[in-house]
Amino acid sequence: MDATELLRAWNEGDKAALDELVPLVERELHRLAHAHMRRERQGHTLQATALVNEVFVRLADGANPNWKDRAHFLGIAARLMRQILVDHARSRGYQKRGGGAQRVSLEEATLITPEPALDVLAVDRALEAFAKLDARKSQVVELRFFGGLSIEETAEVLGISAETVKRDWRVAKLWLARELDRPRAQEHRP
After folding, report:
1. pTM
2. pLDDT tens digit string along 166-184?
């Protein structure tokens, strides 16, 4: 069976399907996790493997959404990775102390090469604010940036055209870049 068939079987209550699914999607989830961890500060206490394991734990413990296909699964996994990293950062108190994270633009954060640590909490705050303005564009960012989905996969998950994803991605990157580049002092103004 392929990943989509296994996801549907798991959704229908076949717990053994999860055991077969894990090896099929594990490499892809590790790739996503490594990409996330490269954006974190050095010495981060959460490792890529632990991030993937936590995603699987939350998926296995939670109610299964109506899995449509592999892209939908990766979208949910991307959202979980974001939540896990944000929860981890909050639990470590990085928001209070600044976490030693250097603020970088979204464009810089999406580069493949090693880069300065990404302030996950700043990205999360900006993305939450953006979701209030435009939920779909926020989902595009989550799927593309956190999920590593292609334009076509993102379009499939959201049920929109690839051209719409491209437009949403361009607008979202501009909006988020502006938000992430703002000095911290402006964030605390009444």
Report:
1. 0.66
2. 999 999 999 988 888 876 5
